[in-house]
Design a protein that fits this description.
heterodimer; A: 116 residues; mainly beta; 7-stranded mixed sheet; 4-stranded antiparallel sheet; B: 115 residues; 6-stranded mixed sheet; 0% helix
């Protein structure tokens, strides 16, 4: 099946710094990618929808200036957590839709961010 | 708005035993239903989905799920589990005709298969 890769799989940073997470579709083109956040023992929460060549659509309550999303090509979307704080520590997951089949989302392995 | 409840956070079971992972949802509109599996250190993979038609849906790795509209449930079953089925399982719903990525996930159920 289709493969989506995230990098880095885990990252530790100091408070106040910015961190970039990449999401790549390795063997298909994805006009739309999705970013989720998962707190311990909680479900995945959709943060934003990333559209190639246009601005991302953010879910209610997600700060667009804090979580910058760029979808520069059909195979790459990036999430930048700006001026990270300890409360931003979480597991971030991306997914991409291959364009065929309802619910046929392919997920990355996730990126665990720890802000000290 | 939709919501998903996975009633069991952890399910331990012995190898070759049957298992049922429970999922209930609430929604004021028609929904699609999904089960995803996440193996350790891997991304989520689609196990099966219900879009319409037959309420019994068969997925990969011998899993199946039954959509029960009156009970708003979509329980996942396997008649005989293997050690390799140890993983976390997520039930999810999306609104009929809505955004492809706007899945509402349950909190997940960790299945531990013991020898």
């Amino acid at each position: 099946g289709a493969v989506v890769s995230q990098h880095p799989s885990w990252v530790i940073c100091k408070s106040g710094t910015s961190v970039k997470i990449e999401c790549r579709s390795l063997d298909f083109q994805a006009t739309t990618m999705f970013w989720y956040r998962q707190f311990p023992k909680q479900s995945l929460m959709l943060m934003a929808t990333s559209n190639e060549g246009s601005k991302a659509t953010y879910e209610q309550g997600v700060e667009k200036d804090k979580f910058l999303i760029n979808h520069a090509s059909l195979t790459l979307s990036t999430l930048t957590v700006t001026s990270a704080h300890p409360e931003d520590s979480s597991f971030y997951i991306c997914s991409a839709h291959s364009g065929s089949g309802v619910g046929e989302l392919f997920f990355g392995e996730g990126s665990r961010l720890t802000v000290l | 708005a939709q919501s998903v409840t996975q009633l069991d956070s952890q399910v331990p079971v012995f190898e070759e035993a049957p298992v049922e992972l429970r999922c209930n949802y609430s929604s004021s509109v028609s929904v699609y239903l999904f089960w995803y599996v996440q193996y350790p250190n891997q991304g989520l993979q689609l196990l099966l989905k219900y879009l319409s038609g037959s309420t019994l849906v068969k997925g990969i790795n011998g899993f199946e799920a039954e959509f029960n509209k009156s009970q708003t449930s979509f329980h996942l079953r396997k008649p005989s589990v293997h050690i390799s089925d140890t993983a976390e399982y997520f039930c999810a719903v999306s609104e009929y005709g809505g955004s492809q990525g706007n899945l509402i996930f349950g909190k997940g159920t960790k299945l531990s298969v013991k020898p």
